[in-house]
Amino acid sequence: MASSVASSAKFVLALIVAACAIFGVGRAIGNSYAYFLGYVVVQYIVLGTAWNILGGYTGYVNFGVTAFFAIGAYSTVALYKLIPAMPLPFMIVIGGAFAALVGLGTGYLTLRLRGVFFSIATLALAVVVQTLITNWDFVGGARGAYVLRPKLAPLMGGEYVQYLFVLMLGLCVIVLATARAIERSSLGYGFAAIRDDEDAAEAAGVPTLKLKLIATTLSGGFMGMAGAPLPYYVTYLDPTSGFNLNYAVNAIAMPLIGGTSSWVGPVLGAVLVGGLQEVLRVTISSAANVLVAGVLMVVFVIAAPRGIVGLFQGKRK
Question: Torsions phi, psi of 168, nearest 5?
């Protein structure tokens, strides 16, 4: 037990050191675009890892990523209008809590659904949430809403985009530490049992109901937290940008490309796909984003079904 705690502490410390190093490199470069690029990639790491907790560890494929992501984003818009002076970290926590509650409700209502039927239910959830937000005038409805981003970052000075990057980097550390802890715990073994054979797991005494609720709540909450800073990043949020197809496609493609068996998989997938997409967006067109993720996902599903992590594990064996 003590060795496990020490290992987790070392892992978290290593993540914090890596995060500080990334921020230091960005400051040294002195280019604002480096922070915009870094924010997008780190956001996808959080989003892909959140999806992987339910889709990779537990085996329940979630097509409703945009629902949870947009709940976090629009929670920030609502809080910005109600309490303009509220610090963004509090908005992130509240947005994540709302998304977690929706995740808990989704898990409870879809307990008897498995496989493709569960996936269709989550897709329907995204449609329902988008319809509700599109008709909610308080958060802008179909016309969208503006969020005025401060020019300077609080406490640390510099541009506000640096502050957004630091917040997302901190969230990334928390999410990755959680994913790694799940892998090495009885909770992770329970998720794996559900993924491999849910009926056998239930017959063996695994509390499948409880574990599925935990998975949907954690996954939904982290997706909501990933979306909460979005209004400050784009400064204008409408249903088209909040429910962008890129988020759903990338959140699924990145863990599949990197490998769903480990917390490292979504990180590798996000760095590879997210970085390539941003380069193409600047040099060619943003329309290539979905195409890149789709083509890479098809290639890896055929050539390396277990992703990049699976390739390295196979070579090691």
Answer: -65, -35
What is the value of pTM for the model shown? Answer: 0.89
Domain boundaries, the chain: 2-243, 244-317
**161 Cβ partners below 8 Å, 6+ apart?**
32, 35, 36, 39, 233
Q: If we measure between CA atoms, which residue out of 130, 106, 101, 102 comes closest to residue 120?
A: 106
CA angle 215, 296, 280 (to 5 degrees): 110
Among residues 300, 210, 248, which one has the least CA distance to residue 62?
A: 248
Rounded CA-CA distance 246/177 in Å is 25
Dihedral of alpha carbons 73, 294, 48, 122, sign: positive
- Which residues partner with 145 through β-bridges? 237
- Please state, as a whole number, how many other Cβ atoms lie within 10 Å of the Cβ of residue 3: 7
Residue 283 sits at the vertex; the CA angle it makes with 291 and 152, to the nearest 5 degrees, is 105
pLDDT in tens, 201-235: 888 888 988 999 999 999 999 999 999 999 999 98
Q: Report the alpha-carbon distance of residue 13 to residue 21 in Å, rounded.
A: 12
pLDDT tens for residues 68-109?
Answer: 999 999 999 999 999 988 999 999 999 999 999 999 998 888
| Highest-confidence segment of 180-189, 217-226, 308-317 | 217-226
